[in-house]
Queue: 3 jobs
Job 1
Amino acid sequence: MGETGKGVSQGIGIGIGIVIALTGLPVLGFLMCGGAFVGISEMGRRAEDTFRKEDDARPKPSMPAGTDIAPSPKPPRSNDIPAPVEREPPPAKPKPVDVWEQAGAVASLDDVTVKLIETSLRKPGMIRPGGDRAEPSSELTVVRVRITNRSATRKINFKTWGTGFFDIGSGTNGFLRDEHGNVYPRISPSSLCRWEGQADHQSIAPGESHEDLLVFDPPIPAAREMRLELPGENVDLKGEIRLKWAVAEQTRPPRSPMLVEPKPPFELEGPRRPSIVERVVPKPTVPDLPPREKQAQSKLRVAKTFLRTGDTEKAKAELDALVKQFGETEAAKEAAELLKK
C-alpha cells in the first residue's frame, strides 16, 4: 500500500511540476520533475529485485549425481577429417549376346532340323518354261539345305526360301550376310523360270526330309564368314533358323574341258588358214533331228539334270511324260532304260 501511495504522490508531483512549468515557474517545475524521475527509477529497480527473488525461489529440475554436461562438439579440423570411403565400382554391363556365336552347319527350331549340304561358288542351272536349261554369265553363291521333320505327329507345310514367280515381296525368303554386316541380295531367275534344284511348296510328313536351293551374290574378297538367316514361317514355326560357314569352305566345281574354249595366243589379220588336220580330216556333220526328237531330247536333258541333283521324284515324272508323249523317239527309248534302273 505504501508503494502505491508513494507512486500516486509522485504522479501528482509530476503533474504539479508540469503545470508550474507552463505557468512560468520554471525552476520550481524543474526541481519537481527531477524528483519524480528519481522516484520512477527507484520503482523500476525494486521491481527488478522482486522478480529476481521470485525466480530464485522457483524449484529447478534436479540432475543425477555424477552427470556432467557434455561440451558442445567442436568443428573438426582439416587434419581430423576422415578419409573418404572407397565404394565398389558399379557392376559391368552384361556383354550383348552374339546370336551367331553358336551357329554352324546344322540348326534346329522346335522339331525341325535344317542342314547345309552345299555351299559353292558356281553357275547354277536355270530351267526355262519349255524345259531348256540355261546358266548365268557369272558364278554365284549357291546354298543347298536339307529340311528334316523330326516330329512324330505334325505335318509341315513347307514353303521354299528361294524366290518363286509368285513370291516376290513375300518377306519369307532367306537373307545372307557376312561378318562385316554386308547384305548379299538374293538372285532370282528370270520370269517364269526357276533354279535347278529349287524346291516347290509342298508338305513334309513326320520323319521325312526335303531339300531347297538358294542363290545369292558372290562374297566380297574381305569376307571370311557367311551367315544365312531363314524365317521359321516357312516351316510353320516362329523364330529364325541361323546357319553359317567359312568362305574358304565354299567349293568351286572343276570346269569341264568341253566347255573351255581355247583362245589363240594372238590374232591374225585376214581369214584364218585351216590347219593340216582340218584339211585332211573332214569335219563331222551333225544330222538335223526332227522336231519331235528335239523336244524329246530337251525333256531328257531336264530329267538327267534332276537325277544329278538328287531329285528323283521330278526326274521320274519327266521320264514318264517323255515316254508317253514321244514314245517313238530315241530319247524315249533312253528314258525307258533310265526308268528301269
Job 2
Amino acid sequence: MSVGPQRSLRALTRVACREAYEMYLAEGAQIQNRRIERAISDLPNQFAVDLDVCTNEELADDLIYNRFMRPLGLGWSAGSAFSTPSGDILVIDFLRREADGPFDRRALRRFNYAWPHFARGVLLAHRLGLRAAQTTTDALEAVGLPAAVFDQRGQVVSSNVSLEALSPRIRLGAFDRLGFNAPTADKLFAEALSALGQADGQNPSSIPLAATRDHEALIAHILPIRRAGSDVFSRGAGILIVT
C-alpha cells in the first residue's frame, strides 16, 4: 500500500484481503493509523506485529480493525512502513484471520529475513511509477501540449513547462494542487476528481476555458489513468492535457 502526502491511498492485495482493502481505500483515508506511525518511529526497517505497536485495548477500539477487518473475519497483522524522498509512505502488510490468533515470533523472523527484498521491490516500483509520470509530461511537452499527471486529490505528481506558462488560468495552489482561475472550471475539475474515485467514473472529461481579452479559448482534457496492479505505487490518478 502507498500513502501519499495528502493521505491518498493505493493498494495491491491478494484476493482474500481485497474486499477489506477496497473498503479501507474508499472510506478510511482520514482515519488515523497509529500502527503505521509507530512502526516508522519505533520499529523502522523491519516487520512488526500489531501487538508490538499497539496494546490489546487499543486494538479492541481501533476503527480500522472494527470497520474494515473484523467484519470480514480478519483480525491480526504484521507489517512494515517506511517513508520515501517524494513524501509517500510505503506499507507492506500481512493480514491473518482473527480466529487464527496473532502472528508468532517464528513468522516474524521469516518476514524480517525477507524484509530487504520486500522493501527493495516496492521502492523500485514506486520510483518507476514516478519516472513514468515525468516521462509522460515530458513527451507531451515535446509535441507542444501543456500537461500534468495528478493524484486522486488533484496534487501534481509531474507537470511540464508549457502548463506552467498557462498560470494563473491553470495554476498550482497549496500543496501543489491543480486549480483553475475560473470558478466554473475549478468546480468542474473538482467534480472530475470525485468521479475518478468511482467505478463508473473512468471516462475522459473536458473543461472549457473561455477566451479572454489577452488569451485564446482552451479545453482542459481529464484522462483517467486505468491502473494495473504493477504500477500501484505511482500516485498518478489522471492526466491533464490542454489544447
Job 3
Amino acid sequence: MKKDDEYRLSQFFGCYFHQDWDLDAKDWEGVIESFVNGNGPAIVVDTEMVISALLDDPLNEHALNHLVFTVWQCSYDPKTDGVSVRNWLESIRERLRKAITYDQAHTPPDGDRGLFFVYGPQVAALREQVLGRLMILAKSDRLETYHDLGRSLEPALHWRSSVMLDLLDEIAEREHALGRGLLSASAVLDLDHPLPASHFFTLANKLGHGVTDQEAFWRSQLSHIRLKAREVPSP
C-alpha cells in the first residue's frame, strides 16, 4: 500500500474512530455520516478508493486487525457487534459509495491524478458507451485494458472507480441473463498477460459458475461472447 493511502486510512480511523468516538455519534454509522458531512467529495471518494483497494488485497482477518487497530489506531471494534473487520470494511465502503452523489477519480492525459465527478444523469450515457465499446471488442476479437477502456469514455473514468466497476458488472450480468455470456471478459488488466480483475470472477461465482480455473473460464467466456456478438446486428 502506498504511503499516501496509509496516511489516508490512519487519518480516517485514527481521527474519526478515536477512543471517545461514541461521544460524537451513537454508532459507527453515525461516525461515517459525520465524516461524509465534514469533508468534501474528493476526500470521501479517495477514502472509498483506498478502502476498496485494501479489500481487494487477500489479507486474512489477523492482518486486517493489526492494520486497523494497531497501525491506524481505530478504537471501535466491530467484533463487539458480532461483525468481522473485513465485513465491517465492506459496509463502510458501501456507505461511502451511497453517500457520494457524484463519483470518482479520473486520470488526466498527463498522468497526474485528479478528480472528475460523475453525476447521476451521466451514468446512463456512460453505460451505453461501455456497452458499445465491449460489443466492438467482442465482434473484432480484441481485448482492451480497463485503463484504456476508462480513458475512452466521455467523461473518462479511472479504471478502479466504483462507477466503472459497477457498470462492467451490470452489463455483464444483463448479457449473461440474455444468454450472451459475461461481456466484460474483453476488458483485462494487462495485454501482455491478459486476465480480468478479481471482480469478474466474483461476479461469475455469484451467477453460479463455480470458477475453479480462472484462465480456462475466462477463455471460454471470451469465445462465447465473441460468437454471440457476431449474431447481434450492427446499428
